[in-house]
Specification:
alpha/beta, 8-stranded parallel β-sheet, 14 helices, 20 strands, binds 2-acetamido-2-deoxy-beta-D-glucopyranose
């Protein structure tokens, strides 16, 4: 790890270097932090003291929900944004919320190359349930739209090497008015989902207040654990409480949820993407440390392949979601997806950046008055991802910079252009370069020290035979 060195003047003058070493335990639950501060402290009239201070601390901030799941951001498909609460199966049989829709999407995930890339969750959202619980007080699927029931759908999904996610709501009703999970129903609903062999639960927060949520989300986490079935847990809690401390305790969320929605629902529009990116970026100093293996901020679904985004904007959503270490849940029609949208969603380099095992969320480094923003995410093997993002609306903008200007350490770097899908010339940190960024588009790079030994798979696959290489 590079030491970060600085110089501060108070009443004493201190030149200092701080090294932070972190070593994760096997479970990733505990982090040993060793801080070594050494330097020359010159106090008052020229006295020089050389001081070395060791600080040892066990940090508890990195606790993650201990169900072993989602060590990298979960990937898959989620119904809500595209299909909402369309229950009109008589007139819209292919798109209504029914077992047909989920079987169709499971077939596509399994047969069109998605599963192998990591898109394994097939997730139901609101409007799946019958308006009435059964005689034992259990949730049940709408009998007309899910005649086989959820357990049978789970088997269908598992037979194809996929996982099934379901939706509930901590409150009197779900957002669309179906039966909710009040505090007294938490255990029975967790057990029902486990009995059906469901693999993930998104627990929404309509029709509950902050004290119900404070009790209910930790209690559901416990109840899921008590079933003995590993069930990924997505919590909408922060989105209902403004997403920020002091109302939201991200340490606690990381201990009880695998992912959480911090902010409002995504819509099929570029404005919606921008408002989400803005909110997550403005609050990145709070949100970024909350993320890590097993615990992720969720800026909501990918709307790539729907109607609202251009190809440039689609690449931007994919790139920024990868930088943010966001869950990648597509909400689109995989049966009719365009080849352009498919190529973006199946880009191996951007997926491997999203799925980097260190699980460090990236941040915005620069916000230029020209409308260019630069994002960076640290990756394993001393590599990193850079995104140059243009908020301009006129024409491709030529942005001059250097790796040194973007805080890179001295040295030479190999650069791979993620969407051009080709290696670029090796760059010294001091070499100036210009990237041309299209309006509402991105240029995305994978950057690695030039002395690296192992190239990532997407580099090795850079041959004619690879279908993703143009
Ligand atoms: C339940 O929690 C315990 C302790 O945190 C953990 O070891 C176990 O794997 C969890 N089980 C499930 C099914 O999540
Ligand atoms: C929250 O709602 C519950 C009913 O679900 C009610 O009993 C409780 O008094 C409410 N608390 C507050 C602070 O409004
Ligand atoms: C946040 O939650 C953690 C873990 O449960 C707890 O130790 C800490 O005291 C909480 N922080 C605040 C400010 O309540
Ligand atoms: C990363 O860089 C540090 C020096 O900054 C070096 O000690 C370490 O071996 C590098 N790690 C890898 C995996 O290349």
């Amino acid at each position: 790890m590079e030491p970060s060195c600085g110089f501060t003047t108070y009443s004493i003058t201190v030149t200092y270097c701080i090294w932070g070493f972190t070593s994760s335990g096997t479970s990733g639950q505990q982090k040993l932090i060793v801080l070594v501060i050494s330097g020359n402290f010159s106090v008052g009239f020229g006295m020089q003291h050389t001081v070395v201070i060791f600080l040892l601390a066990f940090s508890s901030v990195t606790q993650a929900l201990d169900n072993g799941l989602m060590r990298t951001p979960p990937m898959g498909w989620l119904a809500w944004e595209r299909y909402r609460c369309d229950i009109d199966c008589d007139n819209d049989p292919k798109n209504c919320i029914s077992e047909v829709l989920f079987r169709d999407m499971a077939d596509r995930l399994a047969e069109d190359g998605w599963r192998e890339l990591g898109y394994v969750y097939i997730n139901i959202d609101d409007c799946w349930a019958s308006k009435k619980r059964d005689a034992q007080g259990r949730l049940q699927a709408d009998p007309k739209r899910f005649p086989g029931g959820i357990a049978k759908l789970a088997r269908y999904v598992h037979d194809r090497g996929l996982k099934l996610g379901i939706y509930g709501d901590l409150g009197t009703y779900t957002c669309a008015g179906y039966p909710g999970t009040t505090l007294d129903k938490i255990e029975i609903d967790a057990q029902t989902f486990a009995d059906w062999e469901v693999d993930m639960l998104k627990l929404d927060g309509c029709y509950s207040n902050s004290s119900d949520q404070e009790q209910g989300y930790p209690r559901m986490s416990k109840a899921l654990n008590a079933t003995g079935r590993p069930i990924g847990f997505s919590c909408s809690w922060p989105a209902y409480q403004g997403g920020l401390p002091p109302k939201i305790n991200y340490t606690l969320l990381g201990e009880i949820c695998n992912l959480w929605r911090n902010y409002g629902d995504i819509e099929d529009s570029w404005d919606s993407i921008l408002s989400i990116v803005d909110w997550f970026t403005e609050n990145q100093d709070v949100l970024q440390p909350a993320a890590g293996p097993g615990r992720w901020n969720d800026p909501d679904m990918l709307v790539i392949g729907d109607f609202g985004l251009s190809m440039e904007q689609s690449r931007s959503q994919m790139a920024l979601w990868a930088i943010m270490a966001a869950p990648l849940f597509m909400s689109n029609d995989l049966r009719t997806l365009s080849s352009g949208a498919q190529a973006i969603l199946q880009n191996k380099a951007v997926i491997s950046i999203n799925q980097d095992p260190l699980g460090i969320q990236g941040k915005r480094l620069r916000k230029e008055s020209s409308g260019i923003e630069v994002f960076m995410r640290p990756l394993s093997n001393n590599a990193s991802a850079l995104v140059f993002f243009s908020r301009r609306t006129d024409m491709p903008y030529r942005y001059p910079t250097s790796l040194k200007a973007l805080n890179y350490a001295p040295g030479s770097y190999n650069v791979y252009d993620v969407f051009m899908q080709k290696p670029m010339p090796t760059l010294k940190d001091t070499t100036g370069f210009v990237v041309s960024i299209n309006p509402s588009g991105v240029v995305m790079w994978y950057v690695a020290p030039a002395e690296w030994q192992e190239r990532p798979k997407f580099f090795q696959a850079n041959r004619k035979s690879d279908p993703f290489i143009v």
